[in-house]
Amino acid sequence: MSSTEQGTSSAAPAEPTTAPESAAAPEVPESFYYVHGKDKVVHKVSAGALQHSALIHGMISNLGYTEEQAKANPFPFENIDGDILQMVVDWCNQHKGKPTPPEDTNLPKQKEKLFDLVLAVNYLEIKELLTYCCKQVAMMVKGKSPEEIREIWMIPTDAEDEAAEKEAKKRAGKEAAGETAAAAGDAK
Amino acid sequence: MSVHEAEMAFLQLFEQLEIQSKSSKRRFPLLKLPRVVLLECIENLDIFEIIFFSLLSKRVKSIAKSVCLNLLDIHMSSTEKGPQIWFKLPNTPGLDWTIDYSTEIEVAAYPFFQSFFDGPHANHFLFIYDNGIEDLKQMVDHICEVFRSPISGIYIFDESHIEWIERIIKFQPTDRVWINKDIIKSVETLDRVFKNLKGTKYFRLESISIDENFQYKEPIPFRSITIDNSHWVTLSSILNGTNSIIRLYESKFTSKDINTILKEWQTGSKLRNLEFLLIQTTTSLDAAEVFEELNWTDGDEIDGRPTTVILFSLLSKRSKSISKHIHRNPLHIRLMYCSGGPINICLGPYTDPERWIIAYSNNKSPWEYPYFRSTLPDSKDNNFFALRYNRRSIEDSKRMTEHICEVLRSPIRDIQIAHQSIIEWIIKFQPTVRNVWIWNNAITSVGTLDRILKHLKVTDCVGFDSDSVAIKKKFQITEPLPSRSISIRNSYWLTVPAILNGNNSVIQLFDSKFTSKDVNTLLKEWLIGSKLRNLEYLSIHTTTLLDSDEVLKDLNWTDGDENDGRPNTVILFSLLSKRAKSIAKLVHWTPLDICLKTESPPEIQLKCSINPCREWYIEFNKEKESSEYPYFNSYMTGSREVNFLFLKDNGNAMEDLKQMTDHIGEVFRSPISGIDISEESLIEWIIKFQPTIRKVWIWNNVITSVGSYFKKSQSY
């Protein structure tokens, strides 16, 4: 009990020694948070930039971290590649506190990167960036023929879908049989 | 063919590829995206891309169907090059999407896209190789299914369509069906079409290739029917129908048949829904028999109304009162009587005063009247209803006009008068008209002219043709013509007092017999301002030679004001005298946008913010002889009206321009908004005259020292 009280008193802000001279409100220092991806590289991001992400914004609001606590506990996003997270962080920094323009030409052109970016952005709930990404995805097939669309977007044919479905059913059947056999073995 | 089979056919058509064996580096596994993201990506595709995408497999088709996008006006039609499917999106009415099937170029080049702009409309085309009718039908089925939208119109140009259309229409009625000629080859097919396409609203059938003696006696079950080569349509088929619009071409109806239809329509026991009827026959009709026993003179409060009435409102008292209950915006009515020629009653909104024309003419054979014709010149619809001109047409047209004014609650705005009887009628019917033009020989007595001047109030413009006043005895009038604007050809009868005592704003006289002294008197009075106070424009063409010295005698053209030494070539009213200037200043003008162009020839450009389409230029040049200055020129370019006043450049144009600018700025209380500086002296002047200015352009080699740069306008 006493340790809690001590902790509380030590965390309490010190009383100001002098009164502010002017009536103008003092500037609130910007708070920073830390995030890392699969590569464990930590990125320092301002709270303003992170407001783009509904997911992180919600986490910040609930946690109420101090600077030290934020530094000590970076948000881990193990499902996001380091370079993709870097892209997201850069975008958030570039568009911090600014109205988002209707087009964003800085998105990656490589399709595999864009796919990972879309997944990351969707996970982090960055609405404006997701909109840009979806437009970029749609642009991939601009003026393309059906066979080109199929190739670009890897759309399987009906026959392939049916074969994949059969395979999945077969696999599910095997797994179910394996589990039953294992359960029977355990019972013995 | 099932939907699945259709898809498989498309997949074959588009050469399904073995995509799984290709590297994934260049590809994007769209279907692995979360569903919401996937749908957002699809929403960003245009219509053609969605159609292509949805054709790729059953799975993606069901995804595409999740995007809630409805199409409007899906039509299947055919052109000379091949069949077409076209449609619109609800939020972009100016944009058409067309899938065009053709075989014009090599198969390998298909599919390809093209877009065209046509005025405010755009059309996106997708060209697909035409493999035959099955492809087209499958595509229509596919589009309707993916976008959950009905087909609005179908042009049947192949017999095999009929069965397919019947199947479609069973589930979703189609508004318009058009059947090409000779598609229907049997009575059974015709029966089937009428039976199975019941939901159709607009039905057009070109000629059928059934036995010449075939007759159809059942009603045709569509709201609007248009039938070419309609010899097989019988009277009972029409009378027992519930059609609203009937157009029959090359009919074999006799005068008696048409008379029966008209009588039944009028009595209202049959043809209750009929709104429009057009029958073109291959046989000659007897007008007397056609109109026999037709109660065309179902009089109301205006008894004795003529017989040749055709509008719905004229059919009976009831129809008239129904018509009067509709609250329409007032129309612009122009009544045009030409001497010995046709009579036109033009109706329309202010912006399009000739949208509907009721014409009494005689340029066609008698049996061709009455007839309707509608055209679309320059994207405006022009509707023409022609009645045969005969000796009663003048009286008929008067009654028709009275009726129209009453039903449409609109006054006659303009009238052109070619007969004396019209004068008496208009004075009695509507003694106040905005514009009147009187053609030759319309006025044959002094009394008639007097009646016009005293009893017909023309609020805007009255005009007289060269021989409009056909009075043998030479006479003259001294009373003013009480309209804002007058334009008179052969104006010998108009005297100077008639002009001087009038309040006209615009006066145009041709073939006048005014002498130089008369003109001088008019100009002096105008200048002094005790008379002709409203006059803005005066143009007098005389038949006599004028002496310019006498015309301009005692005219105080150079009455300077505080700015002495002002150039002589000023013409604006405000420059005529100090008094004129102070009067001009009293008017609260809308501030002008004044720009100065000092590069030769110097020019003052004026614009008014409330009327950006009108521009005025005062230009100093020396292109003509001195005696020809000042002169005006105006022209229209697009929607802009450009007015020039040319003043003589006496070698001191820049000084004249400065003084004129000073004057205009003072009168119109407007600053200079822009200037191009072509010589260094202007820098000093503009700094002194108006040191703050919005736009400045400085030409090459104008600033020759550092000092002049720092002196120039602050807002540079």
Task: Summarize the model shown.
The complex is a heterodimer of chains A (188) and B (716). By secondary structure, chain A is mostly helical.
Report what the structure shows:
Chain B: This is F-box domain-containing protein. The complex is a heterodimer of chains A (188) and B (716). Chain A is mainly alpha-helical. Chain A is built from 9 helices and 3 strands, in the order H-E-E-H-H-H-E-H-H-H-H-H. Chain A has a 3-stranded mixed sheet with strand order 2-1-3. In chain A, helix 5 crosses helix 6 (111-124) and helix 6 (111-124) runs antiparallel to helix 7. The longest helix of chain A has 30 residues, at 158-187. The termini of chain A are far apart. By secondary structure, chain B is an alpha/beta fold. Among the domains of chain B are: 325-410, no CATH class; 586-711, no CATH class. Helix content of chain B is 28%, strand content 26%. In chain B, helix 1 packs across helix 5 and helix 3 packs antiparallel against helix 4. Chain B starts with a helix and ends in a 5-residue tail after the last helix.
